[in-house]
């Protein structure tokens, strides 16, 4: 595949951009692969890429029921950070941030990773205590996170409202400067192009409808709406639909699927220089390179597979945004949408082998898995290739929900984006 470079851009500019090659092929499915990945979101595509790049396993198919990146990967608000409380979480999210830092070069694709800083606002004494605890824990793990006074908050993000009359006044913040955003579509496209370049088959409009098992229980392949496909290893990376697919193999997952919404405004000139999150008022916001305000809400309170959510949820979020940024009060909103997020009881992911030989699962990222995409794909590829977890994902088993060795980020943070 031709490399993207400044010279390629100049050459194509001179010939009316007629020479660009298709970014990835659309092959017909073969009857057999070494590994099948179910789900062409960022995590599935990254898994396929690292299987090929780091483990030399290129006879891989990524099966996607819709279009590539059409799940949560293409619907999220792209916040990236690694300032999680527990050592296990810090390990996996920081592994991802380190990969984000070199990802555009690695993939030869501009994923627009922008380390503009993620600021998490404190509105009450409880917030202050929780964030300071995070800061200390993060620093012990070598992860940057610092405390800001209200004056420093204003300096870092001038349009923010520090008025003491606010319903939830801002009394400080935790700032991770290496946190930020990336372009979600580019992440899916970049991994797809780089994986396909190494021989991986990406097959869209191919829904997995069954998991086939031998008499000894081991996986032998999948059924799809385009016929059966054989493989001795199958990795399920299907976010909100994970329970449905794992059920096909008789594995009951500790997951609930909820709608989660986001929305964007009309584009305006650069105004908000960083990512702002507020757990207490439950809203978060950043500004895209196009100028749109990208705003995220909370999950609906009921489980559902519908990719829409309750209007009152986004109304509440916009009330909170207007309180934090009165300057945005007259901004028009352009679009809102929803995704289906798969939530575990401890709000930490599962990246693991399963009780079924040859079946692996990567799920439970809930409202906050985009940031983990490179790290998750990297260690999940290791788990599939070697049939044993990488030391980073070893704690993220299914069995922790029976042994009680939880990684309880639910207690550690109200919002997990
Ligand atoms: C509104 C919203 C905002 C969010 N904001 C953030 C954020 O700011 N930061 C952050 O870190 N995370 C965020 N997230 C979470 C993040 O988007 C997800 O954790 C992450 O994108 C999951 O990636 P994935 O590749 O596992 O799943 P997906 O991208 O959902 O990919 C799974 C794929 O599996 C496919 N699939 C399902 N069933 C089948 C089947 N039977 N056969 C074949 N294919 C199938 C689906 O079509 C889908 O394409 C947000 C999510 C939402 C919805």
From TrEMBL:
Ranges in a coiled coil: none
GO cellular component: cytoplasm
EC number: 1.5.3.24
Start and end residues of each Rhodanese domain: 35-79
Reactions that this protein is recorded to catalyse: sarcosine + O2 + H2O = formaldehyde + glycine + H2O2; sarcosine + (6S)-5,6,7,8-tetrahydrofolate + O2 = (6R)-5,10-methylene-5,6,7,8-tetrahydrofolate + glycine + H2O2
Cofactor (UniProt): FMN; FAD
TM region(s), chain numbering: none
Pfam families per the UniProt record, alphabetical: DAO
UniProt-listed GO biological process terms: tetrahydrofolate metabolic process
GO MF: nucleotide binding; sarcosine oxidase activity
Residues spanning the signal sequence: none
Keywords: Cytoplasm, FAD, Flavoprotein, FMN, Nucleotide-binding, Oxidoreductase
Subcellular localization: Cytoplasm
Protein name (database record): Sarcosine oxidase subunit beta
Organism: Phyllobacterium zundukense
């Amino acid at each position: 595949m031709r490399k993207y470079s400044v010279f390629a851009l100049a050459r194509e500019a001179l010939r009316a951009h007629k020479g660009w090659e298709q970014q990835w092929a659309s092959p017909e499915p073969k009857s057999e692969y070494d590994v099948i990945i179910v789900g062409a979101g960022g995590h599935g595509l990254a898994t396929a890429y690292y299987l090929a790049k780091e483990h030399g396993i290129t006879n891989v198919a990524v099966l996607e029921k819709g279009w590539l990146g059409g799940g949560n990967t293409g619907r999220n608000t792209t916040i990236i950070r690694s300032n999680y409380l527990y050592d296990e979480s810090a390990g996996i999210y920081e592994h991802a941030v380190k990969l984000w830092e070199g990802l555009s070069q690695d993939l030869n694709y501009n994923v627009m990773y922008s380390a503009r800083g993620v600021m998490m606002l404190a509105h009450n004494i409880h917030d202050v205590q929780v964030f300071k605890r995070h800061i200390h824990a993060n620093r012990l793990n070598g992860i940057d996170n610092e405390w800001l006074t209200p004056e420093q908050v204003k300096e870092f993000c001038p349009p923010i409202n520090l008025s003491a009359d606010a319903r939830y006044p801002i009394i400080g913040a935790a700032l991770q400067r290496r946190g930020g955003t990336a372009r979600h579509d580019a992440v899916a496209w970049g991994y797809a192009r780089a994986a396909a370049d190494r021989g991986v088959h990406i097959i869209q409009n191919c829904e997995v409808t069954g998991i086939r098992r031998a008499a000894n229980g081991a996986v032998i392949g999948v059924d799809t709406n385009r016929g059966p496909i054989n493989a001795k290893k199958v990795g399920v990376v299907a976010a909100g639909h994970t329970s449905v697919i794992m059920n096909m193999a008789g594995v009951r997952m500790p997951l609930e699927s909820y709608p989660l919404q986001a929305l964007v405004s009309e584009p305006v000139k650069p105004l908000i220089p960083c990512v702002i999150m507020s757990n207490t008022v439950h809203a978060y916001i950043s500004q895209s390179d196009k100028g749109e305000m990208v705003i995220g809400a909370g999950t609906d309170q009921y489980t559902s597979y519908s990719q829409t959510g309750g209007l009152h949820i986004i109304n509440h979020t916009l009330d909170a945004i207007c309180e934090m940024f009165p300057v945005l009060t007259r901004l028009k909103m352009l679009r809102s949408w929803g995704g289906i997020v798969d939530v575990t009881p401890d709000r930490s992911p599962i990246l693991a082998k399963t009780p079924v030989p040859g079946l692996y699962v990567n799920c439970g990222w809930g409202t906050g898995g985009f940031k983990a995409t490179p790290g998750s794909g990297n260690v999940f590829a290791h788990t599939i290739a070697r049939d044993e977890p990488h030391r980073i994902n070893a704690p993220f088993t299914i069995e922790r929900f029976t042994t009680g060795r939880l990684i309880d980020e639910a207690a550690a943070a109200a919002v997990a984006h």
